[in-house]
Design a protein that fits this description.
Strand content: 5-15%
Radius of gyration: 15 Å
Strand order of the largest sheet: 2-1-3-4
CATH architecture: 3-Layer(aba) Sandwich
Largest sheet: 4 strands, parallel
Order of helices and strands: HEHEHEHEH
Number of strands: 4
Shape: globular
């Protein structure tokens, strides 16, 4: 088991907050549905397809994301209680295998996730190359993606990401 470090937690909480603020924006064209449920697809590698090893950062990031969602959903602990006060965040987790082809094949599953309703936003997919591959598909369906561990400048240039 990998230790969950505070840096991983903070990255995922910040990414989740960015994702939530993106979904709440009128200009983004993505709004929280009337049923007050925000559907987040968490895309992360459970195992690296090439090396057959678990990426050391994957479990920590996934756990941090789940803990952040639970903290936001819990409206009785005085932690993030005012953040989306009438909204429940639900999530589904998808294995990217840290592979671009595998991740690209996940895109249709993300569109059909949550009992066919599709994800409102995607958190992940771990690395820049894999995130770029997934984003190249998601952008055609106006599904925002936040990848807290991707470092490519391409993913931060708005004109390149549309």
């Amino acid at each position: 088991m990998y230790a969950l470090n505070i840096f991983s937690c903070l990255k995922c909480v910040v990414a989740l907050l960015v994702a939530i603020s993106w979904c709440s924006r009128d200009a983004a064209g993505v709004k929280i549905p009337e049923n007050h449920t925000l559907k987040i697809a968490i895309v992360t590698p459970f195992i690296n397809k090439k090396t057959q090893k678990v990426p050391h950062w994957s479990a920590a990031g996934m756990l941090a994301s789940i803990l952040a969602i639970e903290a936001i959903n819990n409206k009785t602990d005085n932690i993030f209680d005012d953040l989306l006060p009438n909204t429940t965040i639900v999530y589904e987790i998808f294995d990217s295998k840290q592979d671009t082809v595998t991740t690209a094949k996940l895109a249709p599953q993300l569109l059909q996730a949550f009992n066919g309703e599709g994800a409102d936003i995607v958190l992940g997919s771990g690395t820049s190359g894999v995130s770029i591959a997934l984003h190249s598909i998601l952008k055609h369906f106006d599904i925002p993606q936040v990848s807290p561990s991707a470092t490519s400048g391409y993913l931060s240039v708005t004109k390149d990401c549309k």
